[in-house]
UniProtKB/TrEMBL annotation, chains A, B:
GO biological process: carbohydrate metabolic process
Sorted UniProt keywords: Carbohydrate metabolism, Cytoplasm, Glycosidase, Hydrolase
Protein name: Sucrose-6-phosphate hydrolase
Lineage of producing organism: Bacteria, Bacillati, Bacillota, Bacilli, Lactobacillales
Gene Ontology MF term list: beta-fructofuranosidase activity
Ranges of residues in domain Glycosyl hydrolase family 32 N-terminal: 37-340
A GO CC term assigned to this protein in UniProt: cytoplasm
Catalyzed chemical reaction(s): Hydrolysis of terminal non-reducing beta-D-fructofuranoside residues in beta-D-fructofuranosides
C-alpha cells in the first residue's frame, strides 16, 4: 500500500472488511505483538486519549488508523479495565463521521460529569484547498457506552493561533472547569499552551497562553496536560522543534514535564519556582503521554510508545506502536516519581530469586530462557562496572545492552545497537542517564515481546523503548570487562498476558 | 439487515470495514458478552474447528460469519492458548477464497504432523443452479501461523452419499491415519458416519459407513468425532431428525455420544456392547462439540453453545453464540465424565465459604451481589427439596431456577422460564435430569454473563445453557416449599476475564 493523501484519507466505508480482517490477523500473529500492553487491533496506534475513571471502571481510548502503519484518517478506539492492567478492547468509539471531524477524530481527553463521561477532542476538517480547520468538539458517553456527539464545535481556532491548535485536556480545579490546548502562536510561530475556562461546561473564556517558562518552546506544543501530583501542579507536554540548548533530548520530538510550585489559572500563570523542564522518559520512544487525576487525587499517566515521523520494523506488517503500562505519579524529595501500578504484580507467575552466581568466562547467566513477557527486578551493588544483557543470543553478540557503572561518575546506558532490526538510528542507538555516585542501582525491567520499560531507582527515571530481537534470543546475562564477579540480587517473574 | 441469499453470501471484500468495525464494537459492548469464554469478535460463531495441540500451544478455530447473526459465508477464526483457559484471538485464518470453498470454509479438524498442523475441512461450492458441491479440503499451517491450502480437494462427494457430506475429523490410530465424516446416505436419506483410511496422508480409501448402531440416525449426522477415553472408543456426533423414541432429547437437534468397547477401523466397526446412545449435554444449547486426543492420550472436548435454526436475543445486537469451556473427558465406573480443566481454577478470585444460613421468610440468601462471572460449588444434603436461584432479582420473581429433590425420585430441573428475554420456547423452558435417590447433590456452576454451565455430581452430567437476564439481577438464593431449612455447603468465587 502506497500512502498517498487519497489512501490515507479514504473513508472507512470505502475500505473492505476483508482487508481489515487480514490486517487484524496479521497484527495478532506478529512475533513482535505485545502480550500485556494495549496494542492496536490493526494498523497504527498513537496518542492515548480520554484516560479517565468513570462508572466504576478505568477508561482509555487510543488514536487509531486501522488500515496500516500510517497516519491516516484517525478515530478513537476504546478499552476499559477494572485494575489499570487488564484491559478489555471495546473497539471503535469515535469515528470521523461529521463535517467537523471529517478528516480525523484527533486527540482529546475525558472527564466524568454526573452519570456521563464528557469527551473533548480535536476534529479536523480540510477544505477543498486542503487547508486544515481544527475544531474542538464535545461528546457525551453514557453508562452503556453510547456516545453522542455535540452538534456544534465547542471552540474554533482563535485569531492568535495558527491551525496548529489541538489536543484539548478538560479538567476540573477548585470546582471550575478548564481546558488546556496545544497551540502555535500565529505571530511568533512558537509553541504555546492555550488555556480556557469553561464555565458550567457551557461558556468558554480564552485566558490566553499559559505562562510557565521564559524559554521558547519550539514551533508547536502538542498534548499538554495539567494535573496535580501530591498537590503540586505538573505540566506534561510535547514541544516540537525545541532547541536542544533549552533542554537536551535525543528523540525526534521530546515529551517533557515541568513540576510547579503553584498555578493560578485565572491569571494563566504556572509558577515553576526553581524547577526545570525535564524529559519525562529517558528512553527512545515515549511521546504524547496523557495523565489525569482520580477523584481521590491520585495521578496516573499512560504514554504512546511511538513517535511521529519515525518508521518501525512492524510497519512492514502493517501495524505500529503500543501504549505504555500505566504509571502512577508521586513526588519524593521534590522529584517526580513514576511507578508501576500495584496491580501489575497480578501478572506475575511464580518468582525466581536471583543472586550472584559463579562466573563462567566473564559471563554470569541470570536466566537462560526468559521467554518474551517478564519482569526482572535487579539490584546491582555499588562500585561495579558491567553490562546487563536482555534478549541475548548464545554468545551475547546480539542483545539489548544495559551498561552500568555504580562507582564514581555513575551512569546507565541502554543500547539497542546490537539487537535485531535497526530503526530510527539517525537519533542514536544509545540513551544514557547519570546516576548518583557509589550507590547500588535498582532496576525494575518489564519486557513485553518488543517493548522494554525500565524503572530506575524506584521510578526516578523511566527508560522506555521498542526493540525487535530475532526470535529465540532469550538469554539474560551479566558481563564484566574485568574478571571481577558482579554482585547482584533480585527476582525474575514471567508475566501473564492480559 | 435482511438476510437474503445475496447478503449471506456477499464476498468479504464487498463488506465495508466501517460496518465490520461497528459490528465488532457492538459485540464487545454488549451486556451479554462473555468474559471468560471464546466469543465471536463480531457476527455469528458456530462449530469449534481444528481443536488441537501444536507447537507447544492449544489451538482452536471457530466457524464465523463476521457480518451478523446469520449463517452466511463461513470462515475459520483462530485462537491459541497455553492452558486451555486463557485464549488469544488471532483472527481470520481460513477465508472462503478458492473455487472449492467459494461458498464457505466449513467445519473441520486439525492434526499435528511433524512441524506443521494439518487442517482438513469442508469447502462448499455452489454452482449456478445453487447446487452444493461439498469438497473435503486440506491445508498446512506452519509454526508462524501461515496457512497454505492444498490445490486440489482431498475427497469429493462419494456416489453413495448426497451433498450432505461434511465435517471431516482426521485422526491417527495405531500409526495409521483415518477420517470420519458426517453424511446422508443417498438411497435411504438417513444419517451416517463415513469412514476413510488416509494412507501416509496421501491415499484415501473409502471404508464405507461406520457401523455403530442398528437404529436409524435421523436424516443426517453432523460433526462426528471418534476419540479414545481411557482407551475406550468414544463417538460424539449430531444426528439431525433423530426419532425421539430412539433417544429422547429436547433441543431442536441433539448432540449425542456413544461409548464403545472396541473399534475395528479396517472393518468400519464400532462395538458399543451394552452402551446406549446418550445426550452429551442435558441443557438447552450444546451442539457440534469437537473432541480430540492429546499426544499423552488425554481427551478434551469443546462445544458450540448455540443451535442451528434457533434465534437468540443477541441477534438484535448482530452477534450470536459462544464456545463452551473446555471439558476433560474420562471414564468412571464405565460412565463418561466431563470435567472443567484444572487451569479453570486460575480464574478464581478469593473464595467465599458458604454454609447453611439462618432462614428468612423461607429464603436463604447465599450471595447478594454475585456479579456476572463466577463459579459456585455447592453441595446440597440428602432428603431435601428446594430451588436454587441464580441471577435473581430482589423478590426472586426473576431468576434462573434449579429445582431439586435429593430424596426419593431425586431430580434436578433447570428452568429459564422466569428469567429475562425468552427464546426457543417451542423447545421447552425446562430441562430435567434424574439423580440417584437419597444422595447429596454436588453442583459446580459457572456463570459468564449470559452463559451457564453446570457440572452435576462430579461431571456425570453437564447442563449448558444461555440465558439473558435483566441487568442488575445478581442474587443467588435458596428457597424451599416448606419452612424447613435447606442444608448446604460450598464455595463462591468471582472469576476473572480471560
Amino acid at each position: 500500500m502506497e500512502w498517498t493523501r487519497e489512501t490515507r484519507y479514504r473513508a472507512y466505508a470505502d475500505w473492505s472488511a476483508e482487508t481489515l480482517l487480514k490486517l487484524q490477523a496479521q497484527a495478532a500473529n506478529s512475533q513482535y505483538q505485545l502480550g500485556y500492553h494495549i496494542r492496536p487491533s490493526s494498523g497504527l496506534l498513537n496518542d492515548p486519549n480520554g484516560f479517565s475513571y468513570f462508572n466504576g471502571q478505568w477508561h482509555v481510548f487510543y488514536q487509531s488508523f486501522p488500515f496500516g502503519a500510517a497516519h491516516g484518517l484517525k478515530s478513537w478506539m476504546h478499552l476499559v479495565s477494572d485494575d489499570l492492567v487488564h484491559w478489555k478492547d471495546l473497539g471503535l468509539a469515535l469515528a470521523p463521521d461529521t463535517k467537523f471531524d471529517s478528516h480525523g477524530a484527533y486527540s482529546g481527553s475525558a472527564l466524568p460529569v454526573d452519570d456521563k463521561l464528557f469527551l473533548m477532542y480535536t476534529g479536523n476538517h480540510r477544505d477543498q484547498d486542503w487547508i486544515r480547520h481544527p475544531f474542538q468538539l464535545g461528546a457525551w458517553m453514557d453508562q452503556a457506552g453510547q456516545i453522542t456527539k455535540l452538534d456544534e464545535p465547542l471552540i474554533t481556532q482563535p485569531a492568535h493561533t495558527t491551525d496548529h491548535f489541538r489536543d484539548p485536556q478538560v479538567f476540573k480545579h477548585r470546582d471550575l472547569y478548564y481546558v488546556v490546548l496545544g497551540a502555535q502562536d500565529k505571530e511568533t510561530k512558537t509553541g504555546k499552551i492555550s488555556l480556557f475556562s469553561f464555565k458550567d461546561l457551557k461558556e468558554f473564556t480564552d485566558l490566553g497562553y499559559l505562562e510557565f517558562t521564559e524559554a521558547e518552546m519550539g514551533y508547536m506544543i502538542e498534548c499538554p496536560n495539567l494535573i496535580f501530583v501530591d498537590d503540586k501542579p505538573l505540566l506534561v507536554f510535547c514541544p516540537q522543534g525545541l532547541d536542544k540548548d533549552v533542554v537536551a533530548y535525543d528523540n525526534i520530538y521530546p515529551n517533557m514535564y515541568l513540576l510547579g510550585e503553584d498555578v493560578q489559572l485565572n491569571k494563566a500563570k504556572f509558577e515553576a519556582g526553581d524547577n526545570q523542564i525535564q524529559n519525562l522518559d529517558d528512553g527512545f520512544d515515549v511521546y504524547a503521554s496523557q495523565a489525569f487525576n482520580t477523584p481521590d487525587g491520585k495521578a496516573y499517566l499512560i504514554s504512546w510508545v511511538g513517535l511521529p515521523d519515525v518508521s518501525y520494523p512492524t510497519d512492514e506488517e502493517n501495524w505500529a506502536s503500543c501504549l505504555s503500562q500505566v504509571k502512577e505519579l508521586s513526588l519524593k524529595d521534590g522529584k517526580l516519581i513514576q511507578r508501576p501500578v500495584v496491580s501489575m504484580a497480578d501478572l506475575r507467575e511464580k518468582g525466581i530469586s536471583l543472586q550472584t552466581a559463579e562466573k563462567v568466562n566473564a559471563k554470569q547467566q541470570i536466566i537462560a530462557e526468559s521467554g518474551e513477557q517478564y519482569e526482572l527486578k535487579l539490584t546491582l551493588d555499588t562500585d561495579q562496572n558491567g553490562t546487563l544483557h536482555l534478549a541475548g543470543n548464545d554468545d551475547l553478540s546480539q542483545s539489548l545492552k544495559l551498561e552500568f557503572s555504580t562507582g564514581k561518575d555513575a551512569y546507565l546506558t541502554v543500547s539497542r545497537a546490537d539487537i535485531g532490526a535497526q530503526f530510527a538510528t539517525e537519533f542514536g542507538t544509545t540513551r544514557t542517564i547519570l546516576l548518583p555516585d557509589q550507590k547500588a542501582l535498582d532496576l525494575e525491567i518489564f519486557i513485553d515481546h518488543s517493548l522494554c520499560e525500565i524503572f530506575v531507582n524506584g521510578g526516578e527515571h523511566v527508560i522506555t523503548l521498542r526493540f525487535f530481537a530475532e526470535a529465540g534470543n532469550k538469554q539474560i546475562a551479566l558481563t564484566s570487562p574485568t574478571e571481577a564477579a558482579l554482585n547482584y540480587r533480585g527476582t525474575f517473574w514471567k508475566l501473564k498476558s492480559i
